[in-house]
Amino acid sequence: MRLYFAYGSNMSRGPMRRRCPTAREAGIGVLRGHRFLIMANGYASVAPAPGCDVYGLLWRIGPPDLAALDDYEDVAGGLYVRNTLPVLQDGQTIQALVYLGCERREGRPRADYMALVVNAARECGLPEDYVAKLERLAPQAT
Prior knowledge:
Mean pLDDT: 95
Low-confidence stretches: none
Strand order of the largest sheet: 1-3-2
CATH superfamily: Gamma-glutamyl cyclotransferase-like
Order of helices and strands: EHEEHEEHH
């Protein structure tokens, strides 16, 4: 089993459990020195940013879960790449798998995407000020 840091739609427990049935929650983690962003293709990623933090949910995953995540994140198609980064959990730094978007341009989220991310962030118990930052990325109804 290895640790996986989910910061976007994979924080959503229901869909994640359907995708990766053997994955187990491992608590909240913080990716220090990074910021959450939306790529031009409408999906989330993180990028280095001194002084910024990205909160997310850690999962313990096995080989079948990793294969399912690679498919979901379209690693073969070039949407995301896998990396291992230091994540802070309960005052300790651990190494966790993180999917990083390949698109370098920033953009706007796909329809309903940020609502899914914000709801998942709340469900996970992420800090309210962080959830409020995520909410500000959601498109406003006109």
